[in-house]
Amino acid sequence: MVQAYISGTGFYVPPRVVTNDDLIRNYGVDTTSEWIVQRTGIEARRFADEGVGTSDMAALAARDALAAATLQPHDLDLIIVATLSPEHAFPGSGVFLQQKLGLCDGDNAKFVPALDVRNQCSGFLYALSTAVAHVRAGMAKHVLVCGAETHSAALDLSTDGRTVSSLFGDGAGAVIVSATDADRGVRGVYLGADGRFAEVLCQKIWDIRKRPFIPKNPDRSGTVAPEMLWASMDGKLVFKHAVGTMLGALMRACGNNNIGIEDIDLFLFHQANMRINQFIAHQLHVPDEKIPHNIQRYGNTTAATIPILLAECVRDGRLRPGMKVAMAAFGSGFTWGSAIIDW
Ligand code: ACO
Fold first, then answer.
1. What is the model's pLDDT at position 305?
2. What CATH number labels 3-182?
3. How many angstroms from the chain centroid is the CA of residue 124?
4. b (16+ CB within 10 A) / e for 300-334
């Protein structure tokens, strides 16, 4: 049976570094770097400049991953973008990415399917699972999977919004999922969701049950109330569920593959809060060196955290051929996922 493996990884983060102190200095947020570092581990994040969108960053990460896989955009059979911050309500960022990769140009156009996955922090694992299914079913040979977010455009960067806005940053990560006859690659992706918690962590913006869906002013412009405009989160509840659910997702992944936690060489966890990941590591008795982090530098880039971390680990040699990798993520929905990969 054909296997699916990751043939290339890449990432892009915007150059503008925003430290915790910059949140105070430049935006007037009433916080301290100590508060943010102590609770989350975050020291800085990257913000894209105005004019840069999610598919712009995804395109740079995608080109990086294609180069690593020694492939061209025209080798792709499917494009999947995981994001909660697409350019527009519709269409999704996938088609903008397709254009930016030159796949719609002239006689050489290749109109491969392009889709968006809207599963927030676990979006990359949902997208990976879709890519793996296409490859294993023989429907695609090379699939581009990007996780990309432009959070900075939609953060309440005032003291009112500090609980959420101090956590998030911009960036994109990409992988190419390719077919192989070799006995390696993605052994399984295990997903879950619990819609009872759909409103615990959300950014509503509109209510489609209303007519019109956004309240309309006499001049035909719309007004979005602050409680609809900004993301809201019950942080403590999310934290509690994240720990238990990610532990369960990891155990499920190990059980399905007849391996133990001690057989895993590298754990790539979603970067929502370093304390969540340290707590999981402690529960599983996993040594620190097996759990890399980049939340200190990038904050939470939602669907992009795992592919950015993966690309960094490949680049700096922490991830080498033959190693066994576990991934786990949890977030809004609630949705979650885990994966086992023989690298
Ligand atoms: N600086 C200073 N004070 C702050 C800040 C800040 N940046 N943010 C909040 N506070 C204040 C609050 O206003 C509150 O003050 P009050 O007691 O006077 O009302 C106090 O600190 C405590 O606030 P809590 O929200 O209870 O703080 P908590 O200890 O729970 O930490 C945190 C908040 C870091 C957000 C934590 O709950 C967390 O990390 N939760 C998980 C987040 C997560 O995983 N999200 C999922 C991913 S996101 C996604 O899927 C899109």
1. 98
2. 3.40.47.10
3. 5
4. bbbbbbbbbbbbbbbeeeebeeeeebbbbbbbbbb
Q: What's the predicted TM-score (pTM) here?
A: 0.97
Mean pLDDT taken over the chain? 98
pLDDT beneath 50, residues of the chain: none
Sign of CA dihedral 311, 312, 316, 319: negative
Q: Which atom of ligand 1 is nearest to the CA of 231?
A: 51
- The domain defined by 186-199+231-342 folds into Peroxisomal Thiolase; Chain A, domain 1 (3.40.47)
The pLDDT score that the predictor gives to residue 219 is 97
| Integer Cα distance of 281 and 285 in angstroms | 6
Alpha-carbon gap, residue 225 to 245, rounded angstroms: 33
Residue 219 φ/ψ, nearest 5 degrees = -85, 10
- Binding site membership of 245 for ligand 1 (Cβ less than 6 Å): no
Q: Using the atom order of ligand 1, give the atom closest to the CA of residue 40.
A: 34
Q: Is residue 41 within 8 Å of 274, Cβ to Cβ?
A: yes
Identify the pLDDT of residue 263: 98
Closest Cα to atom 46 of ligand 1? 331
Q: How far is the CA of 44 from the centre of ligand 1 (A)?
A: 16
CA pair distance 246, 326, nearest whole angstrom = 11
What sign does the dihedral 94-96-102-107 (CA atoms) show? positive
Extents of the domains making up the chain: 3-182, 186-199+231-342
CB 174 within 8 A of CB 64: yes
Q: Is 235 in the pocket of ligand 1 (CB under 6 A)?
A: yes
Positive or negative torsion for Cα 81, 86, 87, 89: positive
Bridge partners (DSSP) listed for residue 177: 6, 143
> Hunting for tokens 């030159």 — which residue is that?
102
Q: Return the residue whose CA atom lies nearest to atom 36 of ligand 1.
A: 235
Distance 160 CA to ligand 1 centre (A): 12
